[in-house]
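Supplementary Note 2. Why include the ligand at all?

Several targets in our set were suspected to adopt different conformations when bound, so apo predictions alone were not considered sufficient. For every target with a known small-molecule partner we therefore ran a joint prediction. The input for 4'-deoxy-4'-aminopyridoxal-5'-phosphate is given below.
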Amino acid sequence: MANPIYAALPTTIFSIMSGLAREHGAINLGQGFPDAPGPLAIRQKAADETLNGDNQYPPSPGLPVLRQAVASHYARAQGLDFDWAREITITSGATEALACCFLGLLEAGDEVILFQPMYDSYAPVIRRAGGVPVLARLQPPQWRWDQAMLEALVTPRTRMVVLNNPLNPTGVVYGEDDLRVLAEVCVTHDLIAVCDEVWEHVVFPGAVHRPLIALPGMRERTVKIGSAGKMFALTGWKIGFLCAAPALTEVLAKAHQFLTFTTAPNLQAAVAWGLENSADWFAAMPFDLARSRDRLSEGLRREGFAVLPSAGTYFLTVDLPASGVLEDDLAFCHRSVREAGVAAIPVSAFYEAEPVTSILRLCFSKRDETLDEAVRRLAKARDLSIRAHNRGG
Ligand code: PMP
Ligand code: GLN
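The joint prediction is reproduced in token form.
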């Protein structure tokens, strides 16, 4: 009746935890979204485009004005030199951009190296495209690879590596040295790199994001993926960017034309405007978020939680065993949302293979009062968990 890959898929942890948060009236530090409405001027531009602009089908690769704005933005922000007409495709979010890469670039039996913890949309679509995920495991607290580890994963069937940088859920921002090791392996073995950089602008003072496509030998073999939802804290907007050399873009654009063909023109126009008019936003946003990260991590540390470092994304992670919690992260998340009124994401949801981790992911792009109350509730959840463990249940 159904395709077995999709039939066997669970509902994503993000939907499950947001559903439970609604059901229990809990604070939701699970699914990653800010509780602020997002930049007013960009939302006003979208409203204006909806009322007065053209709301019929845009060109399949995206509005030229947005493709030009994406190319200029990456030239200014990252020193990249994309030809907007031949190298930029606009998608319905990074999720569609990722699907375009897997459906458009893989053949049956191609192996794809994935690093766990990994975002949950990668492996199912790779499998549906006929690819074979080859799962590596990064270890806390560094979450890094080295050359020997990478070389051991490569076989004659390896076609692609997927990198998420900055990394959701751990907040690691990979630096030049790590990227160089990865790039050398890609060049040596003639691999395509799909680089999920949706968090590229959510990088805190002290860390620097470097796009993999800028490394030697990578310009022709990397697909760089961005997301306006993350850039402008408008996560529901679902405007993604596929940036790649013409030979790759030609086939990615074909995958896109039969996934969604195009995406909403009012939002495309507003994002184009935003990219050209948001220098202040890009300068201030990382500082505001770093303050929220610090507020949450300091609060949690005061309560005795073992908080791991986060250099980017909306997320920080907590080592549960080191915080005194002995149940696993999934069980703790269920207890926490039901009994203490705070939702989180278990990092084990970012792994396929056992044994899983016991690490909690918390989203800190929230108001101060919300973060403070969440700390109190997490401390309560931990106490409940310890008590239940001592009772033997
Ligand atoms: N990749 C990663 C690593 C993400 O965290 C997300 C969303 N949080 C996406 C892809 C999907 O992005 P979009 O909403 O633009 O589809
Ligand atoms: N990427 C978001 C997160 O990590 C969730 C997106 C979704 O709900 N699919 O929280």
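The mean pLDDT is 97. The first strand starts at residue 27 and ends at 28. Comparable summaries for the other entries are listed in the accompanying table.
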